[in-house]
Structures are given as structure tokens and as C-alpha cells.
Amino acid sequence: MKKYGFGSKNWPLEWRMIGWFTLLLLCIVIFLGSTFYFMLVNHTEDHVGKRALSVAQAVAEIPELRQAFHTREPWKIIQPIAEKIRQKTGAEYIVVGNRQGIRYSHPLPDRLGKKMVGGDNAPALMKGDSYISKAVGSLGPAVRGKVPVISEQGEIVGVVSVGFLLSDIQEMAKTYLKQIALIALILFVIGIMGSFALAKHIKRQIFGLEPEEISALYKERNAVIESVREGILVIDHQGIISLVNQSALDILDLPAQDCAVGKPVQALLPHTRMLEVLNSGEAELDREMHLNGREIVVNRLPIRNEENQVIGVVASFRLKSEMDQLNQELSQVKQYVEALRAQTHEFKNTLYTISGLIQLESYQEAIELITKEAALHEDHVTWVMEKFADPWMGAILIGFYNRARELKIDFIIDRESRMEKIPEHIPHSAIVSILGNLVTNAFEAVQENEERDRRVRLFIADRDDTLWFEVEDSGPGIDEKWIPHIFRQGFSTKKGTNGEKRGFGLARVKQLTTELGGTVLIEKGEWGGAIFSIALPKREVEIDD
């Protein structure tokens, strides 16, 4: 069975909120209206009681009234005085009685001489007290002021009772009830209008989503955040950690999630730069940091609200070793692809030549070309495999060789070159990146030369404690004034085509060489071009941050 109450999921959030707000407001208005009404009635009764007591005290102090108690027929004196005062004050009745409670005055003359009703005269007649009481008199329930009448000799000779009927007080309060109800109705209508506006505002703030949708999105968000391999940490505008996933806890070696959320970020990461990003509002991308003996790549991005104000910072962390592994795999694939592409292109040219020779019936020349190409390729591959036991190094050298043939460049690998094994602390991707950038730059440097003068030489040496790489070209060389700037990122003496950005290759070579504890030298070669020499220590060197 479906439910259609305010709490039912079948109702949109906006109408549920309006319904609950209206019900709550109705209860508050009824409660406050009733409370105010009863307070008003009580206040009116208290005010009327004080008024009755004040009138009774004034009547009891009249000398003629006090002297009348010593006459033979006191009611003849007391009744006119009491009635005159009653008419002026608006009291329901003013009753004066003796110590036995016999009436000497009453609004109804036929009740004179009869005993007073109510039974509340004792404190006034016995103790001489003045007070306010509620009792049922001969005219009905009333609020009464009781005051003793004291003679000139100081004796209690009677009592004055001034009363106002409760029914009259209630009628008086009812005149205010309509005003209270009108005010309550106005407030109720204003409250309903406000609940409509508030409900619409809240719905806009949550992008029109229902609570069930928000709950589902929250669960999906947590699942997504926990599923990514990158560590994610978020702080609010006060620098308090508001979100952290398990990957971040593992990478940063932080305590359990419940212990991290809600704490200042500086308590867990004393040297973090997230607070600088929070203050400056400027993102920091691909920054490297050392933490707990591990290299971490971190991105820090400010979180902004609709007014473009920074309300927090999100940081993502990734172990540099994982990124290096991905780069290594990507570089390997690129080198293999480039080698295969160059080799395919060269073989196509050779096949076209062989096909032409066959069509011209120059069979002997075709056989000689096939034999020459096969021997040349086999000799080169065999030599590379013998001199370079590491498959990575062999693959990249064959790729360079095929690329050079495609570009009509005389690529010379020095016959004295040799490398048995790349040390474990030197990533293969670093060697690929260093040689790839240097050789590619050398190829570009000789492109403007005539074909017979396009020469690039590579020398690789595996010495006792050093790996040595030397790349020489026959290009125009490097002007001495550019040498201090040549390794700066973004600096290049060549202009990029089609918006291509340059000036990253040599900067990357310098960065990798420095990280590995090596050195880079630039000299002028015998061919007139540049010689880049790289020396890498075979033993791991500690580098200061």
C-alpha cells in the first residue's frame, strides 16, 4: 500500500517541506495563541482583583461607614454609600457585613440582613487581613477583594467585599480573542508564504535533486573516490580535512580515515602547501615532493563557489614510481612503433626499387640489391645484439638506425660502443628519454644540410663506474650565448610549426641527468656541430631536495 503523507517518497521534496513547515507552524501558532490568551485572562483577573481590593480598602476607610456599625440600623447609612461607590467604580457588587456575616449592603435590597455567601470572610474578620479571593457568591463566581472594617478603637467590626463576576472578566477577554486570532492568522499566512520561498530556495541549492537522489549520488561519489588509484585529500576554507580516500592514506602513510577527517591538515602533513593554495587561489600541477622516503607527484587545485571565492583545496597524489613505470611502458611502445614505422617505410622503398628492377628485367641487379639489404640489416642487428645485451638499448638503437635511413641521415654508432647492463637504480625510461631527445635533436639539426653532409654519431660506453653517452651531429652547432639557457624549459632556438610547443626535450634531459646524479657537457665537434656528453654514475647517488 502506498503512503501519501508528508514523509512519503511519492511527494516531491518541495511539497514535503511545505507540508511539514505548515504543520509545524500551525502547532506553534495554536500553542502561542492559546498561551497568550490564557496569560491575558490571568492578567485580567489579577488586575481586576487588585482593583476590587483597592475599592474595598477605600470603602473600609470611609468614616461614616465605620461609625454606622455603632448605630441601631447601620444598613440605612451603609447601603447608600456602598451603592453610590459601586455605580461609579463599575463593580458587580459591594457588600458590607458585620462580624457575623450579616449584610448591611447589597445590590439587591431584598438580600439585606441575610448572611453573606462564599465562606471566605474568616481571614479578614479573624486576623484583619486584606486579600483577593475567588468564590461563588449569591450572584455567581467572582473575583473579590476582602478588607476588614476597623473602628476608631481598633476593633474589627465588619468586612467589605467588592466583587467582579468571572463571566464579565471572560467577556472582557473575549474582546481580545478576536484580535489574537486575527494576528495568529496573519502570522500563519506569512509563515506559509515563507515556507514556500524557503522550500524553493533549498531545492535550488541542491540543484533540484530529491533526498533519495542525493543519497545515491553520495554513495556513488564515495565509490568513485575509493576506486581511483590516486590519493585524494580535500580541505575546507579553514584548512580542516573534509575528505580523504584510502589511496591517500596509504600513499601519505596517514592514520585511519576516521582519525584524519575533521583534523587540521597541518597536524597530519606539517609541510603541506595546500594552505598556500588556499590563500593564493593558484593551482599547483605535477609538483614533486618527498615523503617518508618516497617520491610523490601531487596536484593541488582550489575549490571555488559560485562567487569565485576559494572555499577549499583538493589535492591528488600519485607515487612517482608508478608514473615512471607507465612512462617506461609508453616510451617502450613508442620506440617500437617508431622503429616498425621507419623500418616499414624503408622496406617499402626497397620493395619499390626491387619491383622496378624486375619490371625492367634487371634481375641480376634486383638479386644484388636484395642480398645487400639483407646482409646490411642482418649485420647491423647482429652487431647491436652483441654489443648491447640490454633489450631496451638494442630496441632503441635499431629504431634510431631505421629512422635515420628514412631521413637520409648517416647514423653512425661508434664501433667502440658497448653496454652490458643498465643498473637497477637507473630506469629504462630515463635512458630512452635521454637518448631519444638527444638523437632526435641531432636529426633535426642536420635536416637543413645537404644529404651527403647529414651525419650523426652516437657513442655509448660502459666503464667501471660510469655510463657515458655522446651524441655528435654535423649541424650548425650552438651559439655560445645560448648555452646558459639551452636547458631551460620552454627555451628553443627553433620555432614550432602549427602551434607546436618546443623547448622541453633538453630540459627533460637535464632534469633526468641531475636526478640520477650525472652531468651534461656541450662542446663543439670536429664536424662543426654540437657534441652532447652525458655521464651517469652506475652507483645510486643521494640527491638533496
Order of helices and strands: HHHEHEEEHHEEHHHHEEEHHHEHEEHEE
Whole-angstrom Rg: 53 Å
Q: Which regions contain 5 or more consecutive residues with pLDDT less than 50?
A: 1-5, 497-501
List the strand order in the largest sheet: 6-5-9-8-7
Number of strands: 14
Question: Strand percentage, roughly?
Answer: 15-25%
So how many helices? 15
Shape: rod-shaped
Rounded mean pLDDT score: 77
Considering DSSP H and I runs of 4 or more, what fraction of the residues is helical? 40-55%
Structural class: alpha+beta
- Cα distance spanning the termini: 68 Å
Q: Which sheet architecture does the biggest sheet show? A: 5 strands, antiparallel
How does this structure look, described?
Strand 3 (140-150) and strand 4 form a beta hairpin. Helix 11 (320-359) crosses helix 13, helix 11 (320-359) packs across helix 14 and helix 12 runs antiparallel to helix 13. The relative contact order is 0.05. This protein has helices at residues 13-60, 63-68, 75-89, 122-127, 166-205, 211-227, 246-252, 257-260, 265-268, 274-280, 320-359, 363-387, 391-406, 428-445, 505-515; strands spanning 93-98, 131-137, 140-150, 156-165, 231-236, 241-244, 284-291, 294-304, 310-319, 410-413, 455-462, 466-473, 519-524, 530-537. It is built from 15 helices and 14 strands. The protein is rod-shaped, with a radius of gyration of 53 Å. With 545 residues, it is of the alpha+beta class. The two termini are 68 Å apart. The strands form three sheets. It has a five-stranded antiparallel beta sheet with strand order 6-5-9-8-7. The chain has a five-stranded mixed beta sheet with strand order 10-11-12-14-13, covered by helices on one side.
